[in-house]
Amino acid sequence: MSKPLDGASTIIPPPASDQERLFSTAYNYCVTNWCQDSSKSLFTLRYDENFEEINKCDAPYVIEMESAVIDLVNDPSINQDLHDICTYYDYNDNGKPVVDFACVVDGLCGDTIDAHTARNDMQDIINTRDQMLHYSSFPMLGNVSLC
């Protein structure tokens, strides 16, 4: 994945938390760090497209989805089924319940099937992370032959 660089070729870190990576902080990060004018853009256009038609960098941030997600997180009774689908326990974080914001977004924009799919995807990511953490705790064996 490429990362935006400031003028001094320093990597600009992305938003840190799950909430920040989905909502206004993420929007502002992308607009500030990724939007280019057409002369600097490396985006490849199809023959029937032009930069002005697809450039949405001037589009205002729409807060309604962020508000709906935060409302559900703060008051699960709004949609208890969706809240339950999207809550999991991260045992790397002392087993605290965590709400998967992407799951809530998918459930609000779609339905509970979409929420389940998002949760399953996130669980795959967590499992992979946990495996990587587990395997990285073992020292490298060096040049070992099993034959």
Quick structural summary:
The protein has helices at residues 24-34, 51-54, 64-74, 80-86, 101-109, 112-136, and strands spanning 87-90, 96-99.
Q: How would you describe this protein?
A:
The chain has 147 residues and is mostly helical. The protein has two domains: 53 residues, no CATH class; 61 residues. The protein is 46% helix and 5% strand. It has six helices and two strands. A two-stranded antiparallel sheet has the order 1-2. A hairpin with a 5-residue loop joins strand 1 and strand 2. Helix 3 crosses helix 5, helix 4 crosses helix 5 and helix 4 runs parallel beside helix 6. The longest helix is centred in the C-terminal third of the chain and has 25 residues.
Layout: helices, strands, pairs:
Elements: H1 24-34, H2 51-54, H3 64-74, H4 80-86, E1 87-90, E2 96-99, H5 101-109, H6 112-136
Helix pairs in contact: 3-5, 4-5, 4-6, 5-6
Overview features:
single chain, 147 residues, mainly alpha, 2 domains, two-stranded antiparallel sheet, globular
